[in-house]
Amino acid sequence: MLQNLERLDLLIAHYVSGSLPEPAHVLVGSHLEMQPSAEKLVGVLERYAGDALQAIPPVPLSDRERLLAEIFASAPPPEPRARIFEKSRFPASLRAYVGTDLADIGWKMKLPGLRHHVIEKSEDVETSLLWVRPGRALPQHSHHGLELTLVLGGEFHDHRGNFGEGDVSVADEMLDHRPIAGKREPCLCFCVLFAPIALSGSTLRLLGDIIGL
């Protein structure tokens, strides 16, 4: 999964710079909560950013008093990242974004053995939670743009390898895959989709995957 890890490192860099759209920011922040070892990269990038700011010559501020007043009137910074909620299995970042606990999610059946809950949907992005029964394969598909998937519980695998709790799958136009949930327990994921997917592969296998065989 070297290519996927390289893309994830790039996402973390954008997370540190504050340039990610909110859903992607929530996903990466949740990944960092679930995998504290990844926070080491965040610390390194934040130090580099701090050093870069220190190297920039100071520039006089115009309207200094107004700017200071706006800063002091702004919302306080977020609390330090907490670990996963025991009840919800949601990281704090995702819990705040979804606005409810896992036990209170209103699941809808998407396909046999596959449930989903849409959190946000617009022309630009769709975010959702997916629940996949153990061993179920999702229909093979390609991507017309970026899709980010954070594993919250269980695991899934495709030709790239295995993705377990806290792992992030980065999919784009170069990827055509058939994710399969692990056999030991259901796979629970948080997905951020920036472009539609397209079904692919053989018609016979697609039919089997759609009905959950």
CATH architecture assignment name: Sandwich
- Sequence of secondary-structure elements: HHHHHEEEEEEEEEEEEH
Portion of residues in beta strands equals 15-25%
| Straight-line distance between termini | 28 Å
CATH topology: Jelly Rolls
Into which percent range does the helicity of residues fall?
25-40%
Rg, Å, rounded = 20 Å
Strand order of the largest sheet: 1-2-3-11-5-8
Mean pLDDT: 83
Main beta sheet: strand number and arrangement? 6 strands, antiparallel
Features:
213 residues, alpha+beta, Jelly Rolls, 3-stranded antiparallel sheet, 6 helices
Could you explain the architecture of this structure?
This protein has 213 residues and is an alpha+beta fold. It has one domain (1-78, 90-213): Sandwich (Jelly Rolls), CATH 2.60.120. Helix content is 34%, strand content 25%. The strands form 3 sheets. Strands 1-2-3-11-5-8 form a 6-stranded antiparallel beta sheet. A hairpin with a 4-residue loop joins strand 2 and strand 3. Helix 2 (22-34) packs antiparallel against helix 5 (92-98). The longest helix has 17 residues, at 39-55. The protein starts with a helix and ends with a helix. The model is unreliable at 80-87 (pLDDT under 50).
Question: What layout of secondary structure does this protein have?
Answer:
Blueprint: H1 2-17, H2 22-34, H3 39-55, H4 64-73, H5 92-98, E1 108-111, E2 114-121, E3 126-132, E4 141-143, E5 147-153, E6 156-158, E7 161-163, E8 168-171, E9 176-177, E10 180-181, E11 187-193, E12 197-199, H6 203-211
Antiparallel strand pairs: 1-2, 2-3, 3-11, 4-9, 4-12, 5-8, 5-11, 6-7, 6-10
